[in-house]
Amino acid sequence: MAGIVLNKLKDLQRPCLVVRTCATVLQMRHKSARKFFRAREYQNWKKKRDADKTWAEPLLEYQKMLENGPPPPEIEPAPLHAVSRIRPVKGVPWWEKQALERLGLLNTKMNELTVHKNTPGINVELRKVNHLVKVVPVRFPHGLPEDPSDFDHAKLKSNGEFVVNKSLKPQQAAEINNDEYNERRKWSLDGDTIRKEMRRKLERKAMHDEYYVAQYSYHYNQDGKEEKYDRWTKTVKGKEEKKKTPLPSAVPRPGFNT
């Protein structure tokens, strides 16, 4: 009798196992199908993306314009180079230090300009240390200096411009119209001047100082008025007063014999 009951119970459990197995198989098939369709969608999108060449049209048009248009103008090389060192020399190999020494940049300060000729020998040395230096072509916006005295009023900027601030000669000063230097123009201000003045006040922490009067508190008789404040007398009096003040009387705690 017991064997019959056990066989019936086993028969009842078999459908549950079959249902669980089918559900697992369907779930696995669903995941694989989802991955398959996602991969197929990605491949279709990739084909469309590769077939679209609209992004390259401006480049092709520019290439055609260069081929059919006039040749670009030749840039005249600068006769001089303004070279400055932008990296420290510590830890640099010895051959790079020798190149810097030949260029005169080994013992100079950083960002200090040094002028060199634009020759093949100098360019070879600069190519060895191109990661340590900054090379800027020297330009002459005011033209080449005509007189040796122009070098006294010349300045080489960090961008390579050689600017000459020429002083006016007497004949040129007489030709200038005096109406440009009237009283109204004398007191006129522009935006750059105002910004420079405001920046100067901000750096000196003097904004609105005309509205606040400074009140100095001297302790070492800097202004020579010892009768107003005597630091030594004040400190001595303060110490004497502190010594004279009696200490608070001790209050006995309850439960203890005094």
UniProtKB/TrEMBL annotation:
A biological-process GO annotation: translation
Compositionally biased tracts (Basic and acidic residues): 235-244
Annotated keywords: Ribonucleoprotein, Ribosomal protein
Span of domain Large ribosomal subunit protein uL30-like ferredoxin-like fold: 82-133
Cellular component terms per the entry's GO annotation: large ribosomal subunit; mitochondrion
InterPro entries on file: Ribo_uL30_ferredoxin-like_sf, Ribosomal_uL30_bac-type, Ribosomal_uL30_ferredoxin-like
Coiled-coil features, chain-numbered ranges: none
Name the UniProt record assigns to this protein: Large ribosomal subunit protein uL30m
Encoding gene, per UniProt annotation: LOC106181871
